[in-house]
TrEMBL record, chains A, B:
UniProt domain GST C-terminal: residue ranges: 86-213
Gene of this entry: maiA
GO MF terms held by the record: maleylacetoacetate isomerase activity
E.C. designation(s): 5.2.1.2
Keywords on record: Isomerase
Identification of the protein by name: Maleylacetoacetate isomerase
SUPFAM superfamilies: GST C-terminal domain-like (SSF47616), Thioredoxin-like (SSF52833)
UniProt source species: Ramlibacter pallidus
Length: 213, 213
């Protein structure tokens, strides 16, 4: 498999975690978003939507959207599972993942921040306030959801799931923009538990071949 | 089942379509987002994140996040299926759904538009330009993805799926803000095919009990 991705992309990081948790080897193909490499013909030939991550399977299919890719990996390589077996547990884990992937991250990705600055002439400080607002308010919702679930070292159950694959990159991202992480005990507890595992360590941006420090 | 939702919420509309496609009866519980009813204690008692839609199952569990709810309905009431049976097809359908639910809709929901106006002092016209930019550019990506898939009256295959449950509300939403829908033949073809079906007709905002016209 080939993973077209960018070291600092949260959505790419989610898929790298899933691949590491499942012990699946992959070719790392760097696509430098800040340099606009995703808009070059080479990458357009790979994926229609010009978004990273994109996973090329050994059969030559190209998959997009990080949560869809992770579910595909989970269905084709079921061990260890990244979703619970029961429908209610699966719904809980997917909802946690989507709380991050649909409510927080989309507001803060690179093309949105660029639009704020270039098209809307938003100042640096207002852009950073926007960023921190959505991460903090989103993580507060996330914490509220976790607080209603049974105690667990991770987001759900006794092993990392799709929800943790989404949470960890979001925390990295927020920390880079100095988001206040106080008062989120379940959330930060899950983050810290994950970061003790080799899969999360290996997948992190600082261990990527295209890492710029 | 009880569906806490709002007639104009795209994410609520997605779940209403899925419930209608599966022929599942439900109590319609209106939560008026513009009046802030989602922030009232009544609704906070139901759901931790104060987001609609929220589905209360007959067993009393409360589920959040529209795509997670739809997958739960698909797993607990498999007919008609809203996802293909093969992992690759499932990945395709989920990616199409997520292209809308993660790349387009989050930038245009009510709380984001409110933040732009109230906190960032963005003018009405710039807000509408923002709105149309993300819908149009997102639907162009969606069209590119559809163009790479085999011909189909719907988004994928010969019956509506999770992807159509997400597409149709996004088109309604875009039309309300006068987004140009020209040059999107597969996308608009799928929309029109869906709107010929009673399930999509019944679920639309104008047929909701809290519709304000």
């Amino acid at each position: 498999m080939k993973l077209h991705n960018y070291f600092r992309s949260s959505a790419s990081f989610r898929v790298r975690i899933a691949l590491e948790l499942k012990g699946l080897p992959y070719d790392y193909r760097a696509v430098h978003l800040v340099k606009g490499e995703h808009k070059q013909p080479d990458f357009a030939a790979v994926t229609a939507s010009a978004l990273v991550p994109a996973l090329e399977t050994d059969e030559g299919a190209v998959l997009s959207q990080s949560m869809a890719i992770i579910e595909y990996l989970d269905e084709t390589h079921p061990n260890p599972p990244l979703l619970p077996k029961d429908p209610l547990g699966r719904a809980r884990v997917r909802a946690l993942a989507q709380l991050i992937a649909c409510e927080i991250h989309p507001l803060n990705n690179l093309r949105v921040l660029k639009y704020l600055v270039r098209e809307m002439k938003v100042e640096e400080e207002a852009k950073n306030t926007w960023y921190r607002h959505w991460v903090r308010s989103g993580l507060e919702m996330f914490e509220q959801e976790l607080q209603r679930l049974p105690a667990s070292p991770y987001c759900h159950g006794d092993a990392p799931t799709l929800a943790d694959c989404c949470l960890v990159p979001q925390i990295f991202n927020g920390q880079r923009f100095n988001v206040d992480m106080a008062g989120l005990p379940r959330t930060m507890g899950a983050f810290e538990a994950c970061m003790k595992l080799p899969a999360f360590q290996k997948a992190q941006p600082s261990n990527c071949p295209d890492n710029e420090g």
